[in-house]
Design brief:
Largest sheet: 9 strands, mixed
EC number: 4.1.99.22
Catalytic activity: GTP + AH2 + S-adenosyl-L-methionine = (8S)-3',8-cyclo-7,8-dihydroguanosine 5'-triphosphate + 5'-deoxyadenosine + L-methionine + A + H(+)
Number of domains: 1
CATH class: Alpha Beta
Strand content: 15-25%
InterPro entries: Aldolase_TIM (IPR013785), Elp3/MiaA/NifB-like_rSAM (IPR006638), MoaA_NifB_PqqE_Fe-S-bd_CS (IPR000385), MoaA_twitch (IPR010505), MoCo_biosynth_MoaA/MoaC (IPR050105), rSAM (IPR007197), rSAM_sf (IPR058240)
Distance between the termini: 22 Å
Order of helices and strands: EHEHEHEHHEHEEEEHH
GO molecular function: 4 iron, 4 sulfur cluster binding; cyclic pyranopterin monophosphate synthase activity; GTP 3',8'-cyclase activity; GTP binding; metal ion binding
Shape: globular
Helix content: 25-40%
Cofactor: [4Fe-4S] cluster
Length: 266
């Protein structure tokens, strides 16, 4: 479907949980967030029906996000259900990689197309600092497992923070190349100030070609990361909500004050 600025909207990002096993400084406040109850989070049945509805409207690219999607119980089964829906051409997942060592083979067998793995530093102490406690070795094991499971065209997502890790760009490029990955550098964004940038190595941040909608874990659909406009899919209905989100998609982003990044899915 085309929006009012003649952009083709075919990409739906679906957050399956607001929980995460890391507390990255650019994603979650130090004090944490108030987590949604189980009843508030979209069920697998609702997500499956949402994808079927989106496919009927012309969507064909889907991405599972979080929080951290791999902490959602039964995530492999959800991947399998979505992958089997006729019309789903690409089913990707963005993950911090901590649990990939456990799940990579199962995800590949279930039909997951691609992975984006977040890694902001190759220095253990620095990684621990930015993630508030993360173990770099777990991510490296997950990246290795993903390759061994047969995932190709994997992307390495690197958030660049001025004065912190910009000195690692060349090393991260080499690491990505050595592991047959494509690296994307994403300058730290600020939802509340409206600071956002183009993605080096990707299309993100270019409003003129934005092709995506975002669904939060509690069933609200957003047509722009940097906008607080939300549509309650449970109240509106999936088809009506998707159509309304496309019709109301802004020309460009501004600010978002109501949610933290972890509550939107990035």
């Amino acid at each position: 479907m085309l929006d009012r600025f003649n952009r083709e909207i075919y990409y739906l990002r679906i957050s399956v949980t607001d929980r995460c096993n890391l507390r990255c400084t650019y994603c979650m406040p130090e004090a944490g967030i108030k987590l949604k109850s189980h009843q508030e989070i979209l069920s697998f049945e609702e997500i499956e029906e949402l994808v079927k509805t989106a496919v009927r409207l012309g969507f064909y690219k889907f991405r599972l996000t979080g929080g951290e999607p791999l902490v959602r119980r039964g995530i492999v089964q959800l991947v399998q259900k979505i992958a089997q829906i006729n019309g789903v051409k690409t089913l990707a997942m963005t993950t911090n990689g901590l649990l990939l060592d456990k799940y990579a083979k199962e995800l590949k067998a279930a039909g997951l197309s691609r992975l984006n793995i977040s890694l902001d530093s190759l220095k253990p102490d620095r990684y621990k600092e930015i993630t508030r406690g993360g173990d770099l070795n777990q991510v490296l094991a997950g990246i290795k497992a993903a390759g061994e499971a047969g995932f190709t065209k994997t992307k390495l997502n690197v958030v660049i923070i001025d004065g912190f890790n910009e000195d690692e760009k060349e090393n991260l490029k080499e690491f990505a190349a050595d592991n047959n990955m494509k690296v994307r550098f994403i300058k730290k964004m600020d939802l509340k100030s409206g600071d956002y940038y183009g993605v080096e190595g990707g299309d993100g941040g270019n409003c003129s070609i934005c092709n995506r909608l975002r669904v939060t874990a509690d069933g609200k659909i957003r047509s722009c990361l940097f906008s607080d406009d939300e549509i309650n899919l449970r109240q509106e209905g999936f088809e009506a909500g998707l159509k309304k989100a496309i019709a109301n998609k802004p020309k460009k982003g501004h600010k978002s004050l109501k949610r933290e990044m972890i509550q939107i899915g990035g």
